[in-house]
Amino acid sequence: MTLFLLSLIPYLIFTIFKTKKSFHMLQQNYYNDDQRYFKWIITNITKVAYDSDILFVLIALTVFFETGVTIGAFIILYGIIFLSYRKKKVVAKKPLVITARIKRLSFTMFLIYFIMIIPFLLNFKYENLVCAYTLLGLVTYLNYFVVMTANVINKPVEKCVYYYYKFKALKKLKAMNIPVVGITGSYGKTSSKNIINDILNVKFNSFATPKSFNTPYGLINSINNYLDKFNDIFIAEMGAFKIGEIKSNCKIVKPKYGIITKIGEAHLETFGSRDNIMKGKFELIESLPSDGLAILNMDDEYQVKYKLKNKVKVLWIGIDNKDADLYATNIKLSGKGTSFECVFKGDKNKYEFQTKLLGKHNVYNILSGILLGHELGLSVDELRRGVNNVKTIEHRLELKKYGNINIIDDAYNSNPVGSRMAVEVLSLMDGIKIIVTPGMIELGNEQYDLNFKFGEYISEVCDYVILIGKKQTKPIYDALIEKKFDEKKIFVLNDVRDAFPIMNRLAQGNTYVLLENDLPDLFNE
After folding, report:
1. How far apart are CA 87 and CA 521, in angstroms?
2. Three-class SS string for 226-253?
3. Cα torsion for 244, 249, 255, 259, to the nearest 10°?
């Protein structure tokens, strides 16, 4: 019995380690909402099925040996498996957050394993060792599914917890009676939220949902734990994967002001169609009260053509379309950021603004903030000060210095639209232009084609290209060669750290380097 209990130590350590990994995937997939976690398992079934702990089957072979051999084999095997897991260096962009829900899930997992082990302890026989070890190994091997089962078991509890905190949030928000600004869109939500918050804080004590808290759980958490009695405006980011989710968010926060950044093809798979994406995003605008205000983008064809089902007041921003209520012109980018002029409808004056942010898409986000601030009573001088105070957003076209090199850090993530915008930003810079990128991932069957197009954009702008990962960046390399880009100016590396000596060597005078996609955070201050 004592040897058996001792043999469980490496097994339990490994099981805890693997369960943490499963929890991380569950959390990233919104606790299997709309079967996202299950779909992730199916999509990654090769990784899930061919895991190193499948070696537990070797335990069954020890049935022909003595008990000591079986116990020894079990200890050694799980020790080796655990060490092999520890050697895998995976940098998580969003690490597991140990929330109260994860703690409740951990307790349920403990009960599942305890219920499974207790019969062997109560009726312990050495001849049952192989059976016990095989069962234990099988359950841990199927850990992703066991976690999914625990999540199902906890659903009634989680529903009660959700309604308790939802009621608490509704009560608090009603008592505060402050205006709420809702922000949604296919991309640019977080940037827009932060920009508008910085602008409004010149005059108000506004509060924006932290990080990417854009789900019902995130909004409830924000209200209960972050919003305080001194705030007089609440800015709520709203995300969605399907029709009805933004409407559910609106029932919680009841926005008076609504802003749609841009409508694209993000989450097309879960929405089902582009029309559904439009309908889903416009749930925000159609949830506004009759005395509310919607701020929309006149340069976005999807927003322009949508037929609103309510009579809320609508104001438009634009850059290309001069019929907008507020449009930007004379946009200039430099190493200090972006400058542009604003024109309000009915006002012949042009008002100059300066921001540390880069990119045309950020000008759109700033225009929304300017127009909303103007409607809320901010003067032009206050708006200028607010725009000038807008903070750069970490790893999202963030301008930094690396020695004598200007770094455009867009390492947070990359998608077909964002990567093209980033290259456009680089193209507007005056000097040597270098890109460092591992390409784009998780694009399904279109991954090669979209990366190939990305390579075509790069070939038109960059003087030098540094690719990270030979296999991953092959489509980009193929596009560069097809476009007759000088092969001597292409560098293919396995480790991004090797790019920095090359960057220093290539730098001449005014040099700009675009870091595109999720590179290690080497430039964090």
Report:
1. 20
2. CCCCCCCEEEEECCCCCCCHHHHHHHHH
3. -70
Q: How far from 233 is each of 178, 256, 292, 367, CA to CA, in Å?
A: 6, 11, 14, 19
Check pLDDT > 80 for residue 149. yes
Does 418 lie in the same domain as 365? Answer: no
DSSP string, 80-113: HHHHHHHH-----SSPPP--HHHHHHHHHHHHHH
Position 325 in a domain: yes
pLDDT tens for 198-247 read: 999 999 999 999 977 888 888 999 999 999 999 999 999 998 777 878 89
**Residues with Cβ < 8 Å from 359, sequence gap 6 or more?**
338, 397, 421, 422, 424, 425
Give domain status of residue 221, yes or no.
Answer: yes
Q: How far is CA 157 from the centre of its chain?
A: 27
Residue 185 to residue 284: CA distance in whole angstroms: 10
The token pair at 276 is: 């559904």
Say yes or no: 465 and 484 in one domain. Answer: yes
d(CA 299, CA 156): 45
Count of residues in the chain: 525
Looking at the DSSP assignment, which residues form a beta bridge with residue 355?
A: 338
Same-domain pairing of 269 and 305:
yes
Q: What is the pLDDT of residue 497?
A: 82
pTM of the full predicted structure?
A: 0.76
Mean pLDDT calculated for residue range 245-254: 91
In DSSP terms, 384 is beta-bridged to none
Q: 3-state SS string over 173-216?
A: HHHHCCCEEEEECCCCHHHHHHHHHHHHCCCCCEEECCCCCCCH
CATH number, position 326: 3.40.1190.10
Query: Nearest Cα to 466, choosing from 432, 509, 417, 425?
Result: 432
List, for residues 392-424, the tens digit of each pLDDT value. 877 778 878 888 898 988 877 667 777 888 898
Overall number of domains in the chain: 3
161 lies in a domain? no
Put residue 524 in one of left, alpha, beta given phi > 0 → left and psi -120 to 50 → alpha.
beta
The answer to whether 151 touches 205, Cβ cutoff 8 Å, is no
pLDDT of 57 above 70:
no
Cβ contact 263:273 at 8 Å: no
Q: Which two tokens stand for residue 372?
A: 């909303």
CB 455 within 8 A of CB 478: yes
Domain with 26 in it: 2-153
- Residue with the bigger pLDDT between 273 and 146: it is 146
Q: For residue range 440-462, what is the model confidence (pLDDT) as tens digits?
A: 876 667 788 889 999 999 999 99
Same domain, 370 and 402: no
| Residue 253: Cβ-neighbour burial (10 angstroms; 0-12, 13-18, 19+) | buried
* Inside any domain, residue 6: yes
Q: Cβ neighbours of residue 258 under 8 Å, at least 6 residues apart?
A: 181, 182, 183, 184, 284, 285, 287, 288, 292, 293, 294, 295, 312
